[in-house]
Design brief:
By secondary structure, the chain is mainly β. It contains no helices and 13 strands.
Length: 112
């Protein structure tokens, strides 16, 4: 019997295979079964205070931010949970309650 790896996000033992991916039913995390580890990509992202950020961290917005295409603003002190780091200018991918999915720049958040 083949043993599947535990989830790297929540360490759940109930992972399953879906095509070329492993999936965790508890936290919905998906990762490539051919990749050794997601941390091997060398992506280093720091917040406004210089703290190292990683996937799954919670951050707080430190400045009022205009939301493109909307008349509302993202207020200072807004908490963002379970971030995902991506490459590019806007290097944080997240969902914010009341706004939905969006990308943020790490220079406008601090680790909480």
């Amino acid at each position: 019997m083949q043993t599947l790896p535990h989830c790297p996000q929540c360490n759940s033992e109930y992972t399953y295979e879906d095509h070329n991916m492993f999936v965790c039913p508890e936290c919905a995390h998906e990762w490539d079964m051919n990749a050794a580890s997601e941390d091997d990509d060398g992506l280093i992202v720091k917040d406004a205070n210089g703290n190292l950020l990683s996937d799954g961290d919670s951050v707080t917005v430190i400045k009022d931010l205009k939301v493109k295409g909307s008349s509302s603003m993202l207020k200072i002190g807004t908490k963002v949970k379970n971030i995902r780091l991506v490459e590019g200018d806007h290097n944080i991918d997240c969902k914010i309650d009341g706004f939905g999915p969006m990308k943020l720049k790490s220079e406008f958040v601090k680790k909480s």
